[in-house]
């Protein structure tokens, strides 16, 4: 490893210490623009809501979630490509969220980003050499040795330094992503945000690029925030993994722990859904019902509760686990109108073969069954939702718990009320 | 076993471009039996999609189907014969374009594409599109067609189907749109559905839902599927039999379990080695070296020899035969690799390629040899 490339004197942070700390970061988008929209601003898209985590120097933090969950918005807000609505981003002791333009510009020397589409992130009219030199010029670095450095970097990322004078279109997708890597490295950053960097690549090419990224991390002492929707890639590249759902983190732990001992029902569902490339693996899939709710008016408490297979029973009804299971199924299917109400017998047989529960819960269910049979779905939905879904602890409190890890000794954060001490002893526990 | 429902023999499709002839699909053969889900897997550029659109006769200029036979339930979707002057021409048995349109597409064979937004017209309501399709293909009244359409929407798990019937495509999420497309494909009760990367654009939990749905529907209607994908995870989950494509050719075909556990072709093996696993931690990925060559000028001999770790000199010269290499008593396992032929592979010299480590520099070597 040659000395000139390793981060030099200004580096006061040791490997393993916190390089970046995100505290309560929030980004809301207003839907309209202009005066009227700003006056009637009640319909905000809450893309990222109160997200906190930190990244240690030299580490890769994987950020995984489905499309629309706010991964990319989070990344862009951290880099202040988007103005945060609230919260702080501490990078080496400075708050990026409050920096002025000029300070920020200087700070970006240390922070770079790689985007998903290797095609559109390279100027088709520039040769790759100058593309790699561009950030050096922007920051006034390496005067006189820029070309030499560009060639060196091209070689480091696995391209032929002779390709300095080629245009992006002369490269394949994987090679273009390598040019992006070289450009990100040009100003010798500490921290690189990678937003789905291999998603557009074929399996075999993806492996090549991932390996290169790992090698570069070792050689240049880089810290990655690696965003992907692909759990296999995340497992391979990350030291720790954060799982995001509808603008919030639901779980964060060391990689092995997250994959082997997931504690949030959403993480579990996500892991079960991945098709395993082994026909003998068997397993379930498609355990999640319904669609992601709108981030304009996200569910209260735990945002996953509207789809959660482990939604916690409201304590006041004193339902058995089996009874709650049936009430929950009836409520969800009524909300989604997924069945046809063709006769009382068949309806009861489908949802309550052993009869409806006793007590207050039972009478609420009975009334709702009548409503459904009278084709008044809205009334049934409203009654069930109010009486059951909204009364659950999942709707009333925002979850945040630390769990004892089984693998490794890192902190395991899980935003799920199943880890609440009161809930643990009840019928809802495992 | 009964006759296969779809039989593809030596299908060839070429694109005549200014730079030359692209042999996108170059003599592939496979069969689909009743109720079977057959996978067609490969990286981008392997020719998977051209193969499926050829079967449906949807190849557009400058592409042209130039040879082979595709038989569906005894009907020749594609058939060529030798004319008096030795030229290949369409045989009289081959269905006309009109017959294809009226008898086959939609009614007998339906196709599902990757991007559901492209298959739905954005300016018409979802229900109306579905109803029109049913009306035309099933000869029922508009009212009856609407009833079927609503039923189908419910069947594929669209909540509140009566209400959603009047929604526009953009009011649906990606997964729901794909469900609508599946409803459309199923509406005419076809015996074969060709699915071209139907879940690639979807999130993993939604993909799971769709795969479940397909499983369910397949059991209910006993529909056969040709499932095109690049995702070996999906293949492992749902396929009964798999064809692996590389550069316009099928290079291996086997039952799904054999393909993953008794892999014969070096390409399939390398592909399986190169993917990160969701169920285990792998320290170092083992990528396939280099990139797939252009189909316009494919490598001589075995097309994979430029990237093959097992390549020897004979691979460059001999085009491997596509043959059954299964042991007696086992299911058929087709492979085209000279390793399994008697053409002197064992005595040949190893070939110096990127993959065998003889090339310095270049793409691969970036990684250095320090590991």
Automatic annotation (TrEMBL), chain A:
InterPro entries: AAA+_ATPase, ABC_transp_ATP-bind, ABC_transporter-like_ATP-bd, ABC_transporter-like_CS, Oligopep_ABC_C, P-loop_NTPase. The keyword Ubl conjugation does not apply. Keywords: ATP-binding, Nucleotide-binding, Transport. Residues 20-271 form the ABC transporter domain. It comes from the Archaea. One of its GO terms (molecular function) is ATP binding. Gene3D superfamilies: P-loop containing nucleotide triphosphate hydrolases (3.40.50.300). GO terms for biological process: peptide transport; transmembrane transport. PANTHER family: D,D-DIPEPTIDE TRANSPORT ATP-BINDING PROTEIN DDPF-RELATED, TRANSPORT ATP-BINDING PROTEIN. Belongs to the ABC transporter superfamily. This is Oligopeptide/dipeptide ABC transporter ATP-binding protein.
Automatic annotation (TrEMBL), chain B:
It catalyses: Ni(2+)(out) + ATP + H2O = Ni(2+)(in) + ADP + phosphate + H(+). InterPro entries: AAA+_ATPase, ABC_Ni/Peptide_Import, ABC_transporter-like_ATP-bd, ABC_transporter-like_CS, Oligopep_ABC_C, P-loop_NTPase. The keyword Ion transport applies. Residues 6-272 form the ABC transporter domain. It is a peripheral membrane protein. Its EC number is 7.2.2.11. One of its GO terms (biological process) is peptide transport. One of its GO terms (cellular component) is plasma membrane. CDD domains: ABC_NikE_OppD_transporters (cd03257). It is found in: Cell membrane. The keyword Isomerase does not apply. One of its GO terms (molecular function) is ABC-type nickel transporter activity. Its main location: membrane. Pfam families: ABC_tran, oligo_HPY. PROSITE patterns: ABC_TRANSPORTER_1, ABC_TRANSPORTER_2. Keywords: ATP-binding, Cell membrane, Ion transport, Membrane, Nucleotide-binding, Translocase, Transport. The complex is composed of two ATP-binding proteins (NikD and NikE), two transmembrane proteins (NikB and NikC) and a solute-binding protein (NikA). NCBIfam families: oligo_HPY. This is Nickel import system ATP-binding protein NikD. It comes from Halogeometricum pallidum JCM 14848.
